[in-house]
Write the structure tokens for this entry.
Amino acid sequence: MTLMRMFRILAIFCLSLVLYGCVGAAMLYKDTVPYNSDIILLSEKGYVKSIKPSGDPSIHKTKDVLERWGPPDKKEIDGTMEVWTYHHGITFSGVWLMVVIVPIPLVVPVGREDTFLYFTDNTLTKVEREYGRAPGVACGLMWDFADGGWLDPCIRW
């Protein structure tokens, strides 16, 4: 075996050790998540949390929402319920393939990421958030740069 051939084999071996996610795929789709208990509105318009951190005041009235996020992008009245919509991004649907280190996105925009606030008698009763999700799987040799060490050969998220 020549020295040049050994060098090529060694270089390919070393490069293969650092390829992140050699083979994988993710499916992107729009999903709706309801929030029903201890709702707080984060300072960034359109984002919510369902667990109230200490020291952050709960927001339960229309005036509180207006102070935090300003006027909604859309208002609807459905019987006794008033629905406020806040837009905050674009959501995509499709497939994201990863082959060696080249990602191949096969996705299209399908709408906006929205947060819907439901009020009855000026009191916040329910929150729903529509946004894009991307569960997937990747297989190959992957190094965990944060903690050091090799990850499982196949991971899901």
